[in-house]
Design brief:
The complex is a heterodimer of chains A (336) and B (273).
Chain A lengths: L1 E7 L3 H7 L5 E8 L2 E7 L23 E10 L2 E6 L7 E6 L1 H15 L6 H8 L1 E6 L24 E6 L2 E6 L2 H8 L4 E5 L13 H9 L5 H8 L5 H5 L6 E8 L3 E8 L19 H15 L14 H5 L6 H9 L10
Parallel strand pairs in A: 2-6, 6-7, 7-8
Antiparallel strand pairs in A: 1-9, 1-10, 2-3, 4-5, 4-12, 8-9, 11-12
Chain B lengths: L9 E10 L4 E7 L11 E6 L3 E6 L9 E7 L3 H8 L5 E8 L5 H4 L3 E7 L3 H13 L7 E7 L8 H7 L6 E7 L9 E2 L2 H8 L6 E6 L2 H13 L7 E4 L15 E2 L2 E2 H4 L2 E3 H4 L7
Parallel strand pairs in B: 7-8, 7-11, 8-9, 9-10, 11-12
Antiparallel strand pairs in B: 1-2, 1-6, 2-5, 3-4, 3-6, 12-15, 13-14
The chains are: A alpha+beta (336), B alpha/beta (273).
Chain lengths: 336, 273
Amino acid sequence: MTELWRIKKCDLPAWLNIWREEYELWGARPEGPVMRYGPVADATELVLQVRTRDSAKNMFFPATETMFSFRHDEQGLELNQQLPELKARLLVGLPSCDLQALLVMDNVFGGGGHADPYYSGRRQYTVVVGVACEPGEFFFCQDFGFGPDTPTGADLFLWDDGSNWLAQAFSEAGARLLQAGDWEKVQATVPNRSGPGGWVSADSVARLRERFDDPRWERLGERCLGCGACAYVCPTCHCFDIDDMPHGLEGGERYRRWDTCAFAGFTAAAGHNPRPDQTGRIRQRVMHKLVYGDFRSDRSLCVGCGRCVAACPAGIDIRAIAREAVREKKEVKAGA
Amino acid sequence: MHKDNPYLPSLATIQGIEDLTSDVRLLRVTLPAGFSYLPGQCALLSILGVGESTISITSPPTQPEYMEFAIKRVGKVTEAIHEAEVGEQIGVRGPMGNHFPVEMMRGKNLLFVGGGIGLAPLRSMIKYAFDRRSEFGHIDVIYGARSPQDICFFKELTESWPQQPDTAVYLTVDRGDEAWSGHTGFVPAFLEEIAPSPQDCLAVTCGPPIMIKFVLQSLEKLGFSRDMIYTTLEMKMKCGLGKCGRCNIGDKYVCVDGPVFSFAELGELPNEF
């Protein structure tokens, strides 16, 4: 039994709105036909326990951003870094997979001895409220060792208890949020449902690693359109390109934008491309997600959110690729 | 590296420019404050408004006054670097990545096998060893270029390096011309002809991927073990910090785990480069 706070579902928006003075509220809300994370003016606009098409990574790592500007003048060259404006943000409604993904991204951008000031600045000022999800089609979180009730990574987590939320704080910022409400404390068992899974296993990962030269990659290479939709919606795909945008002759800016190993130019250096066709590119994506992972933290780069499966216009399913890796090739008899 | 923002380049002033071949230019720049490196490391050079490119540092760290880069004109950034003039400022980020196993090389004989612009990273180590000559054994440099006109660092290879104590320099070209009286033929065959002893020797090779592949086979034939052969990989990079993902091969990022690898380490990586 754990001490949890019981919050009536109908009281949630009013309580969140208390914090609007201090925080910009973010969460899932419709943009036309699509559910995406973004800022909301009022907590009643937030949609909880919904699957967003895109992940929340754009909140910390926008699809394009200026890193610094430069100017040439008589004194020489002058560089001005353009760090993001540091606004306190309250992000409400991340499911467990997106929380896990945030931990991966924290390590990628914060680790390696060089913190990324653009990501880290935004992340540091964001308080995250996780919400237990209702697993739906394409999800496979259990394969990565967590389920829809796993609160890891949240400042505050809300479990579904019918007409109430059961809340627990995991940081000072999370505890502070709770103190603004006049909630009842209850002794309860923290829900711990297991999530959907059964696709990716230690065995399938080991087989994929062994099968780098398997002809099945060619069949996937034939189907993969190289559109990058999978990487765009993925909560842990963090690859980016850096380029310059000149403004006339005197100056300009250096910016970065999302990039992906699915694109032909990703590894193309002048005159040489180590991954010259889509076979190598789709293999790289699957291998990096499932096999190599974020090898610095030993975390998987896939969190089982299923967004890439839903987004792929060619119907490529990373779960099926993993499952097929352990399936032995069928013996085809001559004449059969 | 900028303390709070590793994406922000330092500024360096171009002090000298020398054309090494028709498409390779040597740039000498001021050493930004606090920039300290070891042979084999690279830097990201920027022409602001055009972009950034990863270039290996070709000067030795024993040279405290300046840094040098040998830049082959292959794309828009290197093209812009070639257009830069003495006195202009360029952006420098780094040093990036690991370096040649200098500690392990100390006391050993050294064999350098280079092809084309691949001599650039080797030169940092070669000149470092010359500057600290008593710390290293015999030095062999075997170098090949497509034609006599494509030989990088021709003066050093033919004049100053052979004058160094206990050092031999061997040159070859794929195709000679009327004026060429030296060796003609590919580097791997030339290497087997010279047949340096693997005894107490560490080999470092860099050049076009196809040359590296056959040099490795030749070195193994000569009795070098894979953990005594090192190379430095050329790979497209953007951030140089292990974040942008571009240079990922297997469980490595070339920009932070490399660019220097032993062949024993490369053997562990997926066969795609």
